[in-house]
Each structure stands twice: as C-alpha cells, then as structure tokens.
Amino acid sequence: MGNTKVNLQGEKKAEEKATTVTIKPGEQLDWETPKLEDVSEQVMAQPYIRFT
Amino acid sequence: MANRLDSLRAPLFVSWQITRDCDLCCLHCCTDSAPGKRLPDELTAQEAMRIANEIASNEVPYVMLCGGEPLVVPHFLSLAETLGTAGVQLKIETNGQRFDARVAERLARLPIRSIQISLDGDSQEVYARQRPGGVLAKAHEACRAVRAAGLPLEITFAPTRLNIHEAEAVICRARALGAFRFNTGKLMRIGTAARLWSKVQPSAEQYEEYRAVLDRQANILGREMEFCYSPFTLGEALSACLTEPPATLLVLPNGWVKVAAALPEICADLRRESLTEAWGAYCGAWRDEAVLAAVQRAAVDELHHSDANNWRRLAISKV
Predict the structure, then answer these.
(1) Contacts of A35 in chain B (CB under 8 A)
(2) Residue B244 CB neighbour total at 10 angstroms
(3) Per the count of CB atoms within 10 A, which of B33, B113, B203, B289 is most buried?
(4) CATH number (domain holding residue B82)
(5) How many domains is chain B built from?
(6) Model confidence over B215-272: pLDDT tens digits?
(7) What are the tens digits of pLDDT across the range B47-67?
(8) Angle at B85 between CA B105 and CA B269, to 5 degrees
(9) 8 Å CB contact of B15 and A39
(10) A chain contacts of residue B5, beta-carbon cutoff 8 Å
C-alpha cells in the first residue's frame, strides 16, 4: 500500500489552517486527544444515539 | 478521503449496549430487546471492566450505557463506577422501571451528564400498549428520583401511531418533571419496529402534525427545555456522516463494534482487539468503498435499515 494522506486539524490557535501531511505505513500520527467539548454536537446529530 | 477521525487517537464518545436483555418488550425497539433476549455471548463482568478501563486509559471523554435495559445487568453500577471514577462522563439510558432513589444516589457521586428516560406515552393505557409490561408511574417516579438526586434528566419519545397523539402531553410532562432536554425524531425502521412496521409507523399526516407540535412547543418551552429533533431521520444523519463520519463507537453487548447504527457491518471485536485497534478498524471502515456505498444506499432508503441487526463482519476488520 502507498502512503496515506491525512488531514490534521489541530485545535491550537497557532494552527488555524489545516495541514496535510504524508503518513508512511507504520508511522505514528500526532493524534489529538478527544475532548468533551467536541462531543455533544456529534451525539445529538445521531438519532439512534439521541432517542433509542 | 481524509476526515477528522484520522486525527483523533480515540473516539469522542462510546455508545455501549451492555445487554440485549430488557424487562419490557417495546413494539418500537430498535435493538430487538425483550425479556430473555440476552445474547448467549454477552461480555462477562470481568470483560466489561477490562474494556471500561481501556476506555478510561484512552481518555475517551464520554460514554453512554444503554441496552436493552442496562439496569437488568448485575454489574451495571460497578461498570458505571469504574468509568465514572476514572473521570469518564456518563449518560445512562433507561426505561425507568428499576431506577429508584438508591440507584440515583449512587450515580450522583459520578460525573453524570444525563439520565435519559423514555416516556412513550402520557397515559398508562398508551404507554403500556407501546411498552408491554411497563408501568408509567414507575417511569415518572424514576424521573423524580433523578431530579431529587440532583442529576440532569432528559426525556426521549419514540413516536408511533399508537402514542403520537400524546406527544404534546409528554412534552409538558417532561418539563414538569424537570427535564432539561426532550429528544425525538422519526421512528427508526430497525429491530422490533421493522418487524411490526405496518402496525407502528405513523402516517405522513401524523408526522406532519407532530412536527407542528414540536415546533410550537419549542417556541413555547424552548427557553426552559432544549428540543432535539434535528436531524429528524436516520437517513438525514447518514447523509451527514458521508461528509463527516461521527467519532463515536457503537459497542454491542458481545463487544462487537458497529460501523453505523443503521448498517449491519461489524468492524471490530473488543473481546479480541484493543480499543485502539477497534478505533483503527472503525476509521478504516469509513474509508472502505463498499461501506460508503452501503451508507449511501441506507441514507436514501430506510428499507435498508431493517437489516441493521443482522450483524455481518467486515472483511477489512480483524474480527
């Protein structure tokens, strides 16, 4: 498999523009830790979760 | 196509169906739950605790415990406490039949975002017709126990042709009981509801009237109680997922992980794989052309949703 292009949208103010980096297979991403403030909108946008 | 999933090292949210067993046999159930419907291979208490610890160590911020009915599971409170004491915020979905002051007081020590109770009717007759075996007074008492313990209460209402005429009364009841949010949407064509579709699906006219009720009550009560009914249909939500897949994992009672609620595809098995591996498989599934085609089909035709509980293992996963 070839390299994977991944869009990293950091939340730091200094990184307002999304950056595209090339990830080689097996290479570690600089991942974001999930944050609670990001959750509600995604949860409420899913009827199955919202009102099962 | 790259999306935000690829930048997160763990999901934002885990919706965890901890059992398929339930003490009610609701006609609208989307999980095929009912008394005695526990899966033969559900996670043991020990396995569930291991996964809970993994969720916490991966800093997943928010978990919903649901079912079936989560309170029929003997290790439900231990599981909630394992997650909560580790700092994971919790939402509990319950029918309220077993939720009493003792349960509320134990949960009140944890970081609870909300307790969600289903009120699918405002009269015992209608409630029990849709939720055979259910006692509406117990559900109301559970709501009061939630508020008495200082916990946030949200109410959910699944509209069917059996109960939709009582929706407005349920909205007023929800507010009177101190709910901060009222959740609803179009009845989902999944599980028991799909099998009984001709008996339970509201008519187009009933939906039109229902939407008008929701808009009117949102105008009247919107400052006191949040109204959540958008997106109204699973199809609308699936369409949005094609642009931005949700960073949420849906975990089934046996530890399997679904790609999407309305689809049957399974992308991982938390009994055999770590949460990190499962998250990687989930992110990979949302790049898989066959999965994306299935999502597109399900987004435009709800008939495809009725197959959602006939789980199928995806070839790309390590299940």
Answers:
(1) 12, 61
(2) 13
(3) B33
(4) 3.20.20.70
(5) 1
(6) 999 999 999 999 999 999 999 999 999 999 999 999 999 999 999 999 999 999 999 9
(7) 999 999 999 999 999 999 999
(8) 110
(9) no
(10) none
